[in-house]
Amino acid sequence: MLVQAPVLPLNSIRAAVKSGYGLDGTYRALDGERDQNHRLSSAEGEFVVKICNPAEGLSIVEGQLLALEHIAAVDPGLGVPRVHRTLQGGLLHSFSSGGSVLPVAVLSWLKGDVAGDRDLAEAQYCELGETIGRLNKALRGFVHPAPAGRALVWNTVQAHALSGHLDLIAPGRRALVGAVLAESRALVEPAAARLPAQIMHADAHPFNVLLSEEGHVSGVIDFGDMVHGPRVMELANVLADCLLPGRDFARIMTSITSGFVRHVPLEEQEVDLILPLMRSRLALTALITAIRRKDGAPVTPQIAALDSISLDILAALDAGKLSEAIRYAANFEPSPSAANDSMIARREAAMGPKPLLFYDTPLHMVKGEGVWLTASDGRRYLDCYNNVPHVGHCNPHVSEVVARRLRVLNTNTRYLTDESIAYAERLKATLDPSLDTVIFVNSGSEANDVAYRMARCWTGQTGMLVMDFAYHGVTDISDAMSPSNYPAGKFSKPQVRQLEAPDTYRGPHRKGTNDIAERYAAFADTAIAELASAGFGVAVSVFDSAFMTNGIIDAPPGYVQAIAGRMRAAGGLFVADEVQSGFGRMGTHMWGHQHHGVVPDFVTIGKPAGNGYPVGVIITRSEILEKFIAETGPFFSTFGGGNAACAAGMAVLDVIAREELVRNSLETGKYLREGFRSLMDRHELIGDVRGSGLAIGVELVRSRATLEPAAAETRKIINALKDLGVLVGSDGKLGNVLKVRPPLIFGRTEADIAISALDDALKALR
Q: In principle, which of 11, 219, 646, 714 could form an S-S bond with 210, CB 3.0–4.6 Å?
């Protein structure tokens, strides 16, 4: 199992090197676990002469030498030995000694002091991590059958193979090592099979790392343990071998890991396997050293130094604290804690009492993927509610685009940036040509706030016209546009008038009424007159084209046009708040105002624009912006239009276009509404199903004759759906409308799940 190093007389080695390489000089013996090594000082320079162990096979040595040549080609600045080829240009020279044929290799000697003899500083550990990361990355494209198929006793993925030697460990530590070997079999080996893998150095402990005179990491030597395995094993081995008693383990590990991931970003599963691999490395150090001593084989001073502390380090590893340090250094958030009452208490203590948690029993979400959310207990929930992840939770295209941009540059629009200009151009291309100017901010709230300020400047008036129970934001001005932010009867803004929603199901004018759009629009005449009489006039009317907070109503055709016409006649401007209705949600068009056939004076967008990355935009006419700047001075939003924000915005547009999500919204939305309507024959509680695209409202009533709202039942249905693994919300002034507003990648398969779940929830309510 363990391979002993050759022991040849120096005169045989000297003759072989002179014959094969034409080199001669002064030899000095070096330590080696499996090879016999010497330092050769000659007139041609300094070299390392390796008498390779024939028991390992010639191909193992050839693989190591070809790997060194590969590294020299792909990363010439990396400090590794260079292969000195034979006089005939070969990798190795073979010679006979004592009846055996032995290969001899010659490598360049690297100057530097061994890092294992030093107490390294934090910056040096970070340099070490960077160097190992570069080395790992350089070997990424290297392929050779020998190291790939090698059975190496030091392979930490297979540490459990040494379980039969556990009796060599002192009784007081035997249980500790035994637990590691059990973990190796049950966890490490199965997990490693699913991770990115490659050929790697695998043994860059401090005695194989060199420092320059200035103290910088300058090189890595000894490729004798090269093996194929999960790439993260490279990092785990280094971390295990660099820990010293009495030192701050977390700081050392953070420094090395942060350096490594600059060159080799890791997946979360890799990061979570680092500590188990470290434990395997420490256990192997103790086991292999014990076996060698039992067999009477020499133990190198370097291995002896590592062995002397390995089990002490193993016993001192604090998995909780060190796991968080590793995750931080690898750029992952801390591991999620389980959802429980103490978590709710912590939230209230840290964030204050906030009733705005979904569901009677709140969910602790830890992961999102596409149309699914995963809770801390591992259960998955179909998301039929969230509009922020417009193209799906953690959309891989959007996430990668944003991550790459954040690694390069993320600054503001006071510099010329490609992303802001390109995103502005792409947004304009989806709109009427009159909307020719794009202003970046951070959120929909800010967009509506600034749009109002611009309109006030343009019109000289201050009044606002909004829908009853509207929502448009949380800033001082956008809050004034948002009656739904206030308890019933508490909204009072003298410069604001609310319009009766054009609700053709339960409003004053219902389906079948003649001139229904004009009848509802006429309510604006009174509001406009009141604002004029009060001295406010009308600066803006602000509309959400999906009428989301009004219960996702189907406004009669021509209604929005009629309101916009009245506003302009009164000297005001029309704002299309597209935060909830835009980017194809309504299915018929890219934007909600296009669904209603109107060209607004302002388009405001927010949440879904960046799929979760903060993006806000105001799009208007150039003359409006020019007047605003002339009267108020330059406008600037520090984070508005940042590189990453605009990259996120363009990535969302890419996904919408390439995956034809506007069409999907139309078709899936129609299928979903038809499915909900099919339940009406079985469930009297469903009074109306309406909407456009993937903006769908299901109104629940206790009587279809009286339309008595079923608000309490709505709350029960939402919680029952949650228990069935489907998430929806509620809206409408009466709190009796199920709000179905999923990411636009929602398909028929998911629609069938939602329809079936609603059927089951309604059955259970009887």
A: 219
